[in-house]
Amino acid sequence: MLFHRLQQCALAFRGRTVDLISENHLRKNRSRMKAEGAGLAVVNGNAENVGGQQVTGELNTMKLQAQCRCQRVGQGGLADAGNILDQQMSPRQQAGHCQPDLTFLAKNDVADLLDDLRDLRIHGGHCSVEWASDAEALVRHRQYDTLICTQFIQVVQNHVSTAYITHPDCLRHDIGGDHPESPARLTAIEQKIQATGMNARLVYFEAPLVSIEQLARVHDADYLVTIERSAPQSGIRMLDPDTAMNPYTLAAARRAAGAAVFATDLVIQGKAQNAFCAVRPPGHHAMRGRAMGFCVFNNVAVAAAHALEQYGLQRVAVADFDVHHGNGTEDIFQHDERVLMASVFQHPFYPGSGIEGRSERMVNIPLAAGSGSIQFRAAVEQYWLPAFERFQPEMLFISAGFDAHGDDDIAQLHLREDDYFWVTQQLKGVADRYAKSRIVAVLEGGYDLPALGRSVVTHLDALA
Question: Which CATH superfamily is domain 162-463 in?
Answer without folding.
Answer: Histone deacetylase domain (3.40.800.20)
